[in-house]
Amino acid sequence: MTAPTNLKYAASHEWVKTEADGTLTVGVSDHAQEALGDIVFLELPAVGRVVKAGETVAVIESVKAASDIYSPVSGEVIAVNDAAVDAPDCVNADAYAAWLFKVKPSNIAELDSLLDAAAYTATF
Amino acid sequence: MTHSSSPAAPQRTPLYESHLAAHGKIVDFAGWEMPINYGSQIDEHHAVRKDAGMFDVSHMCALDLTGADATRWLRHLLANDVAKLTIPGKALYSCMLNDEAGVIDDLIVYYFSAQHFRIVVNAGTAEKDIAWMRAHLPGYDCTLSVRRDLAMIAVQGPNARERFWTAFPGTRAQTESLAVFQGATLPDRPNWLVARTGYTGEDGFEITLPASQAATTWQTLIEAGVKPCGLGARDTLRLEAGMNLYGQDMDETLSPYDAGLKWTVDLKDPARTFIGQLALVTRRQATQFSGLVLIDRGVLRAHQKVTTALGTGEITSGTFSPSLNQSIALARLPAGVAIGSEVDVEIRDKQLKARVVKPSFVRHGKPVL
Q1: Cα separation of A98 and A32, whole Å?
Q2: For residue A1, what pLDDT is reported?
């Protein structure tokens, strides 16, 4: 169970990577994919959708169950990972390579309320 | 409907330590601490479809019935007719009904002689089943004993029997000629029953044995190439095979006719009456047990609403089918919905298209749609 230290985490198990251009890339943690089991379906938000921090924006379905994915920050969805939609098991294979969507944040101060790797792994 | 509540302290099968050693992810199932998987549930599923996998099913409850009136009592208790069992070891699947023809449980009964049967019931219903059975014993010369001293391992898959014989070569001669739904006791292994039954749609054996021998037997089977599989794979396998799960696809509010189990009700002998018979033949069949295949992308799940031309229905079990690579479900639909018709399933405020099929999706490794 890994949690790279260059990422921030939501308690609801999403990871956030700040890109060089200030946009944010979002996925789910290794802990989350492990708990979900074999992932078979992803429903990702529409590009252009304006989301609030904590809002349900995507759904991951494993063989076992469906789980909501929340946007860790507010902003506009500027890209989604169509390749992951076509091969959802890539999230099991490498949860940090298999990003789900990118957000252009409207309030970067929200990043401060996310957890660092140590604080996140202490939650389970 | 009464459901006996799960005891506060979780129960463990004789294989609990074996599951931990194999890194099984333990969950609560009907009050039992059972492995849901040991890694990838999909890999376990494919092992059973393509090779051989095994399940700890020791949480199910074996009961022994002995006595002069054993046959007469079972013919009254069960909707299927044990009188058709004449070969020692032969098994029969049956529902046990209440007076309103609701299904108390589905079970397997093995015939050893007219005075000796083995009954295997579901884990979650065992307590109420035993109470119901005991309440109907007075007036019959027979005794019911609970066999919690036994463990059960289901070895399933196209290579299951061969791998079992590799693990236990001495059993081959006694079990090689078993027909489907037939079991054999082993003279040199007291309290073993090897039966050609299962819950996956594949060939294989269900092995009953003394609890004290369960862990070593499990290990010997692993060494013979049988993959441990959890309840997760067991669920996708049985769903693909179109087999009902008690408590999910049927319960005491439904008759066997509602649950697609008319074939298990035997009305042939006019001299026989069984509990629930009168209600069963007079009550209207409320629903039709059907299969669904999702046409759009998504995953069908229990309790999703189904809209058909004849009214609404409900999914009782749904999953992603690893064999078909699409989502399938069992559903209760209004009686008369045609096979092949398209219906809408509500998934997160969207209406997705699904096709109605016979409730059987995969058998012996092959799609049967």
Answers
A1: 13
A2: 63
